Amino acid sequence: MKIAIVGAGKLGLRLVDVLKGGDHVITLIDKDEELISRLAASLDIATVAGNAKEVSLLEEIGIKDFDYFITTTDRDEKNIVIGATAKRLGVPKIIARIRDPEHYRQYEFLKETFGIDYIVNPDRSVAEEINKYLVEKYSIRGGILHAGKVSMLEITVDKKPELIGAAVPAAREKLRRLDMSLAAISKNGKLIILRKDDDCVIEEDDELYVVGDRDRIDGAAAQLVDKERYTDIQRVMIAGGGKSGFYLARMLEEFGASVKIIEIDKKRCQYLSTHLQNVLILNGDATDIELLNDENFSEMDAFVSTTGFDEENLLLALLAKQAGIEDVIAKISRESFGELITSMGIDMVLNPVDISASHIVRNIKGATILSSQIIQGQAEFVHIAVDRGMSVLGKAIDSLKLPHGLSIAALQRGSQVILPEGDTKIKEGDRVVILSMLSDSFDLEKLLRVKHGFFG
What is the DSSP letter of 450? Predict the structure, then answer.
């Protein structure tokens, strides 16, 4: 498959990492000649320095022969124009990053008018995940995810108190007797996808992700999940009135929560005041402790840091946790910071680059992937059909040498649900349920690749 990516920013380069190699031929386009020159020396892909809005450049690279054209520049208008141009020149599938609310409200119009097949909006995606967590207090909507005859249930460990203090192998053995499998644990907001050699201990306040046959899981849910587990969240403070903060404030406003946004840019504050009816907009520096105290910072039910600076979001999240705020969420684009912040007990960390890259890759892989749902903004619950020619076909799970952030949780073979062991082999026609950290999208992509000669 031939894929062109326009824009060598964080999202563009993340997509290159995930998609390069295998059956994909990648061409990266950016007008920064110095940057492209550096990348050409380190990336094993085609690189082009130039303006992707120029028809001559696109024709020069043979754009009509490409299968996908993904435009990820820092301007919506550029992405729309470049995508429309590529469509007119014959590319069948166009994906564009479009972030501004004014544009996103015209989602269907943009798709129909400019020939854009899929729109990705990192800021809105982040806001939706945060809103889902705060409003429903579920990382899984309703407590259960379904994938064919396989289901995954999220429960707090107090519903299975006999597992508290047990190491993962022992807990798994107890659940196996009930025809269920322990697939993942959430500790202090950090999701851990479990492998057979994991020996961590289940503790109070952990959340467990249990996989099994749909009927079995539905029966367990009736006993283990509160029928109404909606939050009574009332007061939320958002640091940063950028696009993510704006989308989130609007969602929480519709829910009925009292929302405060602290934004340092006065002009941006004026925009927020005009477009948000029942949200208090404060013009100031969110790192100003005196301002936070004046606004009853410690009395908030939730604090969300969505500024444009990872360092600032990290600092603010730690301040909020020290102030005793129950739910603290941070938007972090740098992966190393995400690891640090979750280790300090922050409730939820979201990386907009990983979320957007995952959405795009799932769109490209749509023929193989039956469904994909995000968990806690950190991982995916992916349901795939095993087709002839896939590299996993006929292999035992242990032989796949999966990384720690990826696990095959269950197989559906006909009407039978199999909770796999290491020697379980994957057969053509199987439906496979995978848990994968968003940061491991590259490894999931490798797992789904089709052997040369079978790719359609």
Answer: B
Which string of DSSP letters, residue by residue, matches 18-81? HHSBTTBEEEEEES-HHHHHHHHHH-SSEEEES-TT-HHHHHHTTGGG-SEEEE--S-HHHHHH
DSSP code of residue 406: E
- Dihedral sign from CA coordinates of 48, 54, 58, 59: negative
Backbone angles phi, psi at 16, to 5 degrees: -60, -45
**Smallest Cα–Cα separation from 231: which of 157, 327, 306?**
327
Residue 159 in this model has a pLDDT that exceeds 80: yes
- How crowded is residue 253: how many other Cβ atoms within 10 Å of its Cβ? 16
CB 32 within 8 A of CB 20: no
Nearest to 399, CA basis, from 416, 422, 415: 422
Nearest-angstrom CA–CA distance, 398 and 98 = 41
CATH fold label, 2-120: Rossmann fold (3.40.50)
Residue 40, classified by CB atoms within 10 Å of its CB into exposed (0-12), middle (13-18) or buried (19+), is middle
pTM value is 0.79
Q: Return all residues near 246 (Cβ < 8 A) that are at least 6 apart.
A: 101, 123, 272, 275, 276
Percent of residues, the chain, with pLDDT higher than 70:
91
Q: Which amino acid, one-letter code, is at 348? A: M
User: What's the mean pLDDT when you consider all of the chain?
Assistant: 87
Q: How confident is the model at residue 196 (pLDDT cuts 50, 70, 90)?
A: confident
Tens digits of residue pLDDT in 206-228: 889 999 999 999 888 888 776 55
Alpha helices (runs of H) in 89-145, residue ranges in sequence order: 101-104, 107-114, 122-136
Angle at 193 between CA 21 and CA 408, to 5 degrees: 60
**Fold matches, 138-224 and 354-448:** yes
Left if phi > 0, otherwise alpha if psi is -120 to 50, otherwise beta: which for 389?
left
> 329-342 burial, b if ≥16 CB within 10 A, otherwise e?
bbbbbeeebbeebb
Collapsed DSSP state (helix, strand, coil) of residue 316: helix
Q: Span 322-338, mean pLDDT?
A: 83
Strand partners, 191: 186
Residues 6+ apart with CB under 8 A from 5: 12, 15, 16, 26, 27, 28, 29, 70, 71, 72
Pick the CATH number of 126-134+233-350 from 3.40.50.720, 3.40.1350.10, 3.30.750.210, 3.30.2310.20: 3.40.50.720
| Amino acid in the structure at residue 110 | L
Helix axes 352-364, 122-136, angle to 10 degrees: 110
Assigned CATH for 354-448 = 3.30.70.1450
Joined together, the tokens standing for residue 395 give 């292999």
